[in-house]
């Protein structure tokens, strides 16, 4: 049995129960604006960065300024839900982090979410200080399923890939881990 010396966590969907709030915020907005993007497609955006999602929305809207305005509206709605406690920590997330702390196992956050947005969420839940390091979606050029973000995290960790375990929830995130040669649950 191999020894795990480092843990990487995705944020949305693994530590924070936010994915469904993001998805429904988009879907409700698209319905209000009569933009024909289906719920199934929005579900597949999980783990992708803003640039890729914006490009897809822009295919329907045809105007990047309007696309960015829609994103701002969606983000504002998300933050209202966050501050009204509709976005919560995943069950036992703090227990897991506390356990890892008790065993002196370092952990990092590796998320497709951009720093500005993730920082608000991490601050809200008082998690920012807990991670050895954090990689955000805007720290890389290519989003998950591209392994770039995980390869950078491996390099910064100082551990071999075989000593790292990743917690991911999205298809794109799992594929990124597989593409990086990392064990993922």
Short description:
The chain is α/β, with parallel strands linked by helices.
Q: Any key phrases for this structure?
A:
185 residues, two-stranded antiparallel ribbon, alpha/beta, single chain, Rossmann fold, five-stranded parallel β-sheet, 8 helices
What do you see in this structure?
This protein has 185 residues and is of the alpha/beta class. The chain has two domains: 6-16 and 89-184, HAD superfamily/HAD-like (Rossmann fold), CATH 3.40.50; 19-83. Helix content is 49%, strand content 11%. The protein has helices at residues 19-32, 39-43, 50-61, 64-83, 93-102, 115-124, 148-157, 171-180; strands at residues 6-9, 16-17, 88-89, 107-110, 134-135, 164-167, 183-184. The strands form two sheets. Strands 5-4-1-6-7 form a five-stranded parallel sheet, covered by helices on one side. A two-stranded antiparallel sheet has the order 2-3. The model has no long low-confidence stretch (mean pLDDT 95).
């Amino acid at each position: 049995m191999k020894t795990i010396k480092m843990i990487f966590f995705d944020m949305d969907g693994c530590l924070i129960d936010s994915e469904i709030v993001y998805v429904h915020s988009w879907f409700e907005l698209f319905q209000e604006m009569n933009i024909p993007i289906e719920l199934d497609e929005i579900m597949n955006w999980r783990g992708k960065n803003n640039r890729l999602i914006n490009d897809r929305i822009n295919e329907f809207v045809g105007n990047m300024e309007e696309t960015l305005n829609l994103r701002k509206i969606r983000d504002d709605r998300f933050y209202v839900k966050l501050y009204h406690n509709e976005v919560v920590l995943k069950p036992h997330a703090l227990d897991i982090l506390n356990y890892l702390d008790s065993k002196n196992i370092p952990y990092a956050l590796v998320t497709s979410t951009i720093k500005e947005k993730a920082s608000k969420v991490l601050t809200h839940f008082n998690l920012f200080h807990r991670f050895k390091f954090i990689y955000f979606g805007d720290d890389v050029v290519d989003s998950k399923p591209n392994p770039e973000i995980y390869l950078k995290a491996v390099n910064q960790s100082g551990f071999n890939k075989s000593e790292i375990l990743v917690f991911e929830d999205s298809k794109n995130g799992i594929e990124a881990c597989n593409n990086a040669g990392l064990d993922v649950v």
